[in-house]
Structure formats: C-alpha cells, structure tokens
Amino acid sequence: MSGAMVFIKDEMGISDTQQEVLAGILNLCALVGSLTAGRTSDYIGRRYTIFLSSILFIIGAVLMGYGPNYAILMVGRCVCGIGVGFALMIAPVYSAEISSASSRGFLTSLPELCIGIGILLGYISNYILGKYLSLKLGWRLMLGIAAFPSLVLAFGILMMPESPRWLVMQGQLGKAKKVLLQVSNTTHEAELRFKDIKIAAGIDENCNDDIVELPEKFHQGEAVWKELILRPTPSVRWMLFAAIGIHFFEHATGIEAVMLYSPRIFKKAGVTSKEKRLLATVGVGLTKIFFLLIALFSLDKVGRRRLLQISVGGMIIGLTILGFSLTMVDQSNEKVSWALTLSIVATYVYVAFFNLGLGPVTWVYSSEIFPLKLRAQGASIGVAVNRTMNAVVSMTFISIYKAITIGKALEEMEMVFTKKPSSKDVEMKTDPIHNV
C-alpha cells in the first residue's frame, strides 16, 4: 500500500485525510478480526482459522485490484484487514503449539520474518510496476497480485498438521499423539510433550484413550473471557498486562509510520524522484529481512529480554538522528546532501534495531506466556491492542506532521491549535515575491 498510495492519489485525487483512512482502516478491521479469531480458532481449529484468513486475503486483494473507485478500494482494504487480524493472531500461536521448547523462539518468529519478506517483495513489485506500467494499471496490480500467495497459503495450510494442543483440547488424544510424533525430533520427546499437554488440559497423564470427553465449555473456549478479564488470577493478570504492554509499545514507537509512509519521509528528506523514493523503500525492506534473520537465530540463544534491551536502545538512537537530520533539511533553504544521506541511514538504523528485537519478540513472547486454555484468546487481546495502536499511528501521521511540521518554533505551536495565522504565514502572504 505504501507505494500504491502514491499513484492512487494521482489517479483518484483523494485528499490526505482519505489516504490516512485508507491506510488505517486495515488495522481497525484487523482489530475486529483479531478479537474474533481467538474464539474461532478454539472452535474450528488453528489450521482452518489460517485457511479462513487466506480466503479473506484473496477476496480483499481482488476487490482492491479491481478498485474502480475509492469506496470499493476501502471495502477491499477492510476485508483484507479482517484477514490480517486472523493471521496475526493465529500464526504465532500455531507455530508455538507445534514446536518444541528448544526451537520455539526460532519457529514462532518465522511469521514475522515472512511478513518482512512479503513487505520486501511488495516494495520491489511497487518499484517495477510503477516504473513500467501505466498509472491506471500499475497500482491495481500492486494490490491485486496479493491474491496469488493467498491462494498458495489456502492450499498449503490444508496439507499441514493440526495443532496437537488444540486436538487435546477437543479430547482427540490419538490424533494429537500422531501429530507430536511428526513434529518432534525423537519418540521420547513426543511422549514428554504429550504428557505435558495432557496435564495442562487437566487430563490424567496416564490416560491412553484415543478419545476422551471434556467439558463443552473447555474445548469450545467458553468462559475464557471471564478468566482473562473479569476474574483473572494474579498470574493471569500479569500475563495479560505483559502481553498488552509489549503489543502497545511495538507500534507506539512509530514503526508503522516509517514502513507505510517511508516514501513521504524520503521526499521530506530531499529525494524528489518517485522512482528513487520507491527504490529507497526497497532498502528498508532489505534491512528488515537482514536483521530479522539475525534475530531469528538469536532468540533461543541470547534470550528475549536481552534482545529487547538492545533493540529499544538502538531505536532511540535511530529516531533521534532521523529527527535531527530532517530538521536540518527543513531549516535549510538549499539541498543539504549530508542531511539527506543521514536521514536515509537513520531510517535504516531504526528499522534494523526494531527488527532485531521488538518486532519478533513481541509475537514470540505473547504466544508463550499464556496457559493452554487461555492462549488463543489471550493472544487475540494482545493483537487487538497491536492493531489499535497501528491504526492510530497510520491514520494520524500525515495530519500530525503537517500540523507540527519538522521544527516549528514554540511560539508557532500555539497557532497550530488556535488556527490563527502565525507571523511567518502573514509575512509570506504579504511578501510580493512569494505572491508572484
């Protein structure tokens, strides 16, 4: 969408507010999807929830690729948003539930890596399609082409095993044991994991039946919301607090503004050509992938907490340098090459440190900390907070940077809120050279 919006604005002539709504509606709809996905995955299973999300992606991509007007574009974006909510909640949960403890960090962060690969491919396709296709066709293909990988996902997930933990929640012990034998390194490991899952589900560890009857409320996720929200134990309250907190700060730090509006940031830094701005965003995608790979192999060795500390420290440095360099560009009357270069480098530094820790750890951590019965719907609350913050950032970024700009004087800040013209604005209106 970051590259497509450049061309959508040119063809449809939509306002900045409409662009913000188009960008942010996905996350508002993802909020609905994530809150629905927890109960859905408890009812129909983890695998079919992923299948459902892929169908939503296909429908949304087709609608956006068709995109005859702004309204249809919005509908398609919203349908995709619901699919995003489902996928963001279920992918790390499914990964965590089929993986062993020794490789859980690696496997649970794979969805974040694959999201990064998808973003990079999006940036590359934006650059190619924007350069070689017409305005009318280019951006539609940028959005519609997403239906193809969604179709691959729909068929691919049906070939994967169901989560053994979900099968145990349904009382299907025989099937759960077969899956564990498939996804474990040894038979002994499978037996130990099977024993732990049965204990977590409240089943006698010595039970050898293939099918057992469990209370209806348990395997359909009934009363989970009460245990999470209304009457949580002290430990569950801390789990929920931790999950909500890490999801809140993942997007409160502004990553969505950088990823979605990077062409605008590069334009503000002084990159005037559309092609060069889209090419610079490819660098953002490459940086994301490279540092996600580092995080992927570090999570189970370095640890979640240490990576978070390194990540947040680097993000602070990156954002500080970015703010300084953009201010230098804004205050100068001529092109400042060093500040332009520093702005791009600072953006890459920020993206690098985000994906080294905060990005992947958020999803790994929130899928690990909840007990079996509460995991799906507990994770869905975290994703709902994540999408809410994502929507807030994406739907306000343009308005905020236009209102505040990069470096208003303190005296001018009052004018922003009182909507009175500043002395600078008055001078510009009365200046004959400016008027000419």
UniProtKB/TrEMBL annotation:
The keyword Chaperone does not apply. The chain crosses the membrane at residues 20-37, 49-66, 72-94, 106-129, 141-160, 238-258, 278-299, 306-326, 338-365. Residues 1-436 form the Major facilitator superfamily (MFS) profile domain. Signal peptide: none annotated. It comes from the Eukaryota. GO terms for cellular component: membrane. It holds the Pfam family Sugar_tr. Keywords: Membrane, Sugar transport, Symport, Transmembrane, Transmembrane helix, Transport. InterPro entries: MFS_dom, MFS_sugar_transport-like, MFS_trans_sf, STP/PLT_plant, Sugar/inositol_transpt, Sugar_transporter_CS. It is found in: Membrane. The keyword Isomerase does not apply. It is a multi-pass membrane protein. GO terms for molecular function: carbohydrate transmembrane transporter activity; symporter activity. Belongs to the major facilitator superfamily. Sugar transporter (TC 2.A.1.1) family. This is Major facilitator superfamily (MFS) profile domain-containing protein. It comes from Trifolium subterraneum (Subterranean clover).
